[in-house]
Design goal:
binds 6-O-phosphono-beta-D-glucopyranose; 509 residues; Dihydrodipicolinate Reductase, domain 2; alpha/beta; single chain; 17 strands; Rossmann fold
Length: 509
C-alpha cells in the first residue's frame, strides 16, 4: 500500500522565492576559489541562487587564487566550468558579479591588497558585509585566520562592514586538534560570526526531522524508551572514494561521516524540544544528546574496507587499489556502531549507526523501530509473530516518510499483513530537493546560524569517537574486514552480529 498522506500543495519556484528573506548587500570572498569544492559546489549554487533572485540586490563574489588571471579571464573560466556542470544558460548578470584577486594565502601583502579591493567594491556597490568562505585545505585555516587578523579583516575597522567566516569540515582530526582550531578561530572572531558547514543540515529532509517531531503532536508521546525499541541510522553510498585518496586515507569513515553527518542525524532524532526554533537553543539541545552518549567502545564497532568487485562486466577497484592508497592501508571505508544515549528519554534504547562506501545502493534513512505489542490477543490464531511498527524517514534518495503497521488481510479468517503508508516529497510538493549548499550559503548571507555546527558540538562529537578513532588504522584494536558488492554485500562479516546478539536485525533495502 502506498498513499500520500498530505494534501499536495504544489508551489512553483517563483512562489518559493517570494517566501525567502533577501540578504543585505555584501561580498562573498572565496579563498581557494579555483579548487574542486568551489567549481563543483559553490559556483553552480551561486548561479542558481542568482537566477532565483535570492541573492542580495547588490553583491560581489571575490575569488582568490594563486593564478595569473584577471576579472575577464576569471569570468570566462567560471562560465566554462558552469557549462561543464550542465548549466546550459548562465543567468544574466551573474558573471559580472565575479571579481578576481591573485594571492598567496600565506603572504601578508596579499591580505592588504584584498582589503583594498574589498574597500573599493564596498564603496562602489554599497556593500555592508563580507563573508569569507574557506574553500581551502583545512591545514591552511590557522594561517589564514592569523593573517586576516593582522590585516584587520576580522573587524569593521577600515572596512566598516561586518565579517563572517564559512568553514568546511574536517574541523580537526581529533578532540585535541579541534580544540586548538576553535581557540584559533575564537581569538579572531566570536562564535556567532563563524559558520561551520555540515551539508547534511542543509538537506530539506534533514531539516524536516525537527518539523516532523515538533510541529505535530502524535509522535512525541511515543518518542521515548517506553515505546521505541531501537533506532537505525543508515548512510550508505554506492560510490568509492572518487579520487580523494590522500584525504580519505587520513580520515576513514569515522572521521569523514560519523563525527559529523551521522552524529548530527542522531542528535536531531534524539534531542529534547528546544525552547525556540533558533540557532542556540537548537544547538544546546543537540549537544545535550552528545553529552549523554558514553565514549564509544571497540566491542560495539565493526569496521570494513571495500574490496575489488566485478560488476556488470566491469571491474571496480578495491580501496587498496585506488590511486594514492597503499596496498596495506587499514583505513576503514565502512563502520557500524551501537551507541547509547544515556538520558531519561532514551536509557536502554540502542541507536545502531552504519555508513559505508561502495555499498549496493545509495540510501540515507533513519528508522525508528517501535516496541512489539505487550501481549498478542491474536496469538492462538496466527502462525507468525506480529511485526512491530516502524517509522522511516527516507532522507535520500526517494525522499519521504513512511509508517508501517499491521492490518487485517481481507478474508473470513484472521490473517494479518504489514502495510505501509507513504509520504513522498516529490509527489506532495512537485519539486525536487534543492541542493543543500543553496540553503546554507543563503543562510550565511542572512546571518542565520540554525543549520550550522557550533564549536562545542564539534568537540563533543570528537569526544564520543575518541577511544575508537584509530581502532582500525594503526592500533589494530578491531579487524578491518573486506566487503564487496558481489552478492549484495552490505558490510563486512560481523556486521549482522552487532544486532543479532541483541535479538534484532538490520533493515534491508
Ligand atoms: C561528505 C564526505 O561530507 O559527504 C563524502 O566527505 C561523502 O565522503 C559525502 O561522499 C556524502 O554526501 P551526500 O550528500 O552525497 O550524502
Amino acid at each position: 500500500m502506498s498513499e500520500t498522506l498530505v494534501t499536495p500543495k504544489v508551489l512553483s519556484q517563483p512562489e518559493l522565492s517570494l517566501m525567502e528573506e533577501r540578504p543585505e548587500p555584501c561580498a562573498l570572498v572565496i579563498l581557494g576559489g579555483m579548487g574542486d569544492l568551489a567549481h563543483r559546489k559553490l559556483y553552480p549554487t551561486l548561479a542558481y541562487l542568482h537566477q532565483q533572485n535570492l541573492l542580495p540586490s547588490s553583491y560581489a563574489v571575490v575569488i582568490v587564487a594563486r593564478r595569473d588571471m584577471n576579472d575577464e579571464s576569471l569570468r570566462q573560466n567560471i562560465g566554462e566550468s558552469l557549462a561543464k556542470a550542465g548549466i546550459k544558460e548562465i543567468p544574466a548578470g551573474f558573471l559580472e558579479r565575479l571579481f578576481f584577486v591573485n594571492g598567496d594565502l600565506s603572504d601578508r601583502d596579499f591580505y592588504a591588497r584584498l582589503k583594498t579591493r574589498l574597500q573599493e567594491l564596498s564603496k562602489d556597490m554599497r556593500l555592508s558585509g563580507h563573508l569569507f568562505y574557506f574553500a581551502t585545505s583545512p591545514t591552511l585555516y590557522p594561517v589564514i585566520l592569523r593573517k586576516m587578523a593582522e590585516a584587520g579583516l576580522n573587524n569593521q575597522e577600515g572596512l566598516s562592514t561586518w565579517p563572517r567566516v564559512i568553514i568546511e569540515k574536517p574541523f580537526g582530526t581529533d578532540l585535541e586538534s579541534a580544540i586548538s582550531i576553535n581557540k584559533e578561530i575564537h581569538s579572531i572572531l566570536p562564535e556567532n560570526q563563524v559558520y561551520r558547514i555540515d551539508h547534511y543540515l542543509g538537506k530539506e529532509t534533514v531539516q524536516n526531522i525537527l518539523i516532523l517531531r515538533f510541529a505535530n503532536t502524535f509522535f512525541e508521546p511515543a518518542w521515548n524508551r517506553d515505546h521505541v525499541d531501537h533506532v537505525q541510522i543508515t548512510v550508505a553510498e554506492s560510490i568509492g572514494i572518487e579520487g580523494r585518496g590522500p584525504y580519505y586515507d587520513q580520515s576513514g569513515i569515522l572521521r569523514d561521516m560519523f563525527q559529523n553527518h551521522l552524529l548530527q542525524l542522531l542528535s536531531l532524532v534524539a534531542m529534547e524540544p528546544p525552547a525556540r526554533f533558533q540557532a542556540d537553543p537548537i544547538s544546546d539541545a543537540k549537544i545535550n544528546i552528545l553529552r549523554a552518549i558514553p565514549d564509544m567502545n571497540a566491542q560495539n564497532l565493526v569496521l570494513g574496507q571495500y574490496a575489488g568487485a566485478q560488476i556488470d562486466g566491469k571491474y571496480l577497484p578495491g580501496y587498496r587499489e585506488e590511486t594514492g592508497i597503499s596496498s596495506d592501508s587499514r583505513t576503514p571505508t565502512f563502520a557500524a556502531a551501537k551507541l547509547e544515549v544515556d538520558n531519561w528519554r532514551w536509557h536502554g534504547v540502542p541507536f545502531y549507526l552504519r555508513s559505508g562506501k561502495r555499498l549496493p545502493r545509495r540510501v540515507t534513512e533513519i528508522a525508528v523501530h517501535f516496541k512489539h505489542v505487550p501481549v498478542s490477543i491474536f496469538k492462538p490464531l496466527l502462525a507468525e509473530e506480529l511485526a512491530a511498527n516502524t517509522l522511516k524517514l527516507r532522507l535520500q534518495p526517494d525522499e519521504g516518510v513512511s509508517v508501517s503497521f499491521e492490518t487485517k488481510h481481507p478474508g473470513s479468517k484472521i490473517s494479518l499483513s504489514t502495510v505501509t503508508m507513504n509520504f513522498d516529497y516529490y509527489k506532495a510538493f512537485g519539486i525536487s530537493q534543492p541542493e543543500a549548499y543553496a540553503r546554507l550559503i543563503l543562510d550565511a548571507f542572512i546571518g542565520d546560524r540554525t543549520l550550522f555546527t557550533r564549536s562545542d558540538f564539534v568537540e563533543e562529537a570528537w569526544r564520543v569517537l575518541a577511544p575508537v578513532l584509530e581502532a582500525g588504522n594503526k592500533s589494530k584494536i578491531i579487524p578491518v574486514r573486506p566487503y564487496g558488492l558481489t552478492g549484495g554485500d552490505w558490510g563486512p562479516h560481523g556486521v549482522g552480529e552487532l544486532l543479532v546478539r541483541d535479538g534484532r536485525t538490520w533493515d534491508h533495502f
